[in-house]
Amino acid sequence: MIRTARHLWVTAAGLLLAACASAPLHYYTLVAPADESAGGLVAPAAGASVAPSLPFELLPVGVPAQVDQPQLVVREGGQGVALLGSERWIAPLGDEVRSALSADLARELHSADVSGLPGNDKPLLRIKLDVRRFDSAPGSYALIEAAWSVRLLHGARAATLACTSRVNEAVGPGYPALVQGHQRAIARLAAQIASAARALGEGQAPACPPG
């Protein structure tokens, strides 16, 4: 009986492991393809001249602990959430948000992210983002609430603007559509930050986006 029970346990464990191994893992990134405009923004026409902005430094991005997981965390009903074992970010969520925002800001500002490069005394925009909410509801919405600031360094006058933003994107069914919704939300957020950054860099009085 003991040998039979042990054999049954080993068989059940083997079947469980096989079932787990058969579930494919899907990895996602918040960085939109380079040849796409994640936020539906129109690129400058061919031959059009665009004045470059100041280089910028994007600091590490903070994200809520509840969603700072390798797996996608999605809403279930009013209060519940689910950790999706087979649907995962390709990198830590804070790094993913930062990479996506950096790429979108570089496109919006027609400038470069010089984070990590040797410093100098030339004018520079320092950008900081802290994500307060990162909500994912498949088939419904992708929502980001964040506090951010833009600071002009080494300019003729020191200037800082601190704001909050709430961006909500409707999404279709499926996890790829959900991730694309977050890509669009980050692109919209980048557009708001870039607008303030350009004003600071040009010596104008920047304003926070309307609530």
For this entry, give a set of tags.
211 residues; alpha/beta; four-stranded mixed β-sheet; 7 strands; 29% strand
User: What is the quaternary state of this protein?
Assistant: single chain
Give the rounded overall mean pLDDT.
Answer: 84
Rg over C-alpha atoms, rounded to the nearest angstrom = 22 Å
Class of secondary structure makeup: alpha/beta
Biggest sheet details: 4 strands, mixed
Number of strands: 7
User: Taking strands numbered 1, 2, ... along the chain, how are they ordered across the largest sheet?
Assistant: 2-5-6-7
Mind explaining what this structure looks like?
- By secondary structure, this protein is of the alpha/beta class.
- The chain is built from three helices and seven strands, in the order H-E-E-E-E-H-E-E-E-H.
- The protein has helices spanning 2-22, 93-109, 175-201, and strands spanning 26-28, 56-58, 71-76, 80-89, 124-137, 141-153, 159-170.
- The strands form two sheets. A four-stranded mixed β-sheet has the order 2-5-6-7, with helices on one face. It has a three-stranded mixed β-sheet with strand order 1-4-3, with helices on one face.
- A hairpin with a 5-residue loop joins strand 6 (141-153) and strand 7 (159-170).
- The longest helix has 27 residues, at 175-201.
What secondary-structure arrangement, pairings included, does this model have?
Elements lengths: L1 H21 L3 E3 L27 E3 L12 E6 L3 E10 L3 H17 L14 E14 L3 E13 L5 E12 L4 H27 L10
Parallel strand pairs: 1-4, 2-5
Antiparallel strand pairs: 3-4, 5-6, 6-7
Helix pairs in contact: 2-3
